[in-house]
Design a protein that fits this description.
65 residues, 42% helix
Length: 65
């Protein structure tokens, strides 16, 4: 299980340094930070538009693919 813990909290501020995010986008950045922390490289989502900005960090897989 990938938990949102101290390691993720350390990773999260690094993401907006390279990829601007603010407001509700921080939630998406937190998901990506969790993925990076745990070595998860693929994100299956129905919300591709929200995550396309992170495609240099993780692979975005549309739910309907």
């Amino acid at each position: 299980m990938a938990e949102n813990g101290p390691t993720v909290t350390t990773q999260l501020p690094k993401i907006p340094e390279d990829i601007p995010a603010g407001g509700r986008q921080i939630h998406d950045a937190n998901i990506v930070a969790t993925m990076l922390t745990y070595g998860i490289r693929e994100l299956l989502t129905d919300n591709v538009a929200d995550f396309v900005r992170y495609s240099s960090l993780v692979e975005i897989i549309p739910l309907d693919a």
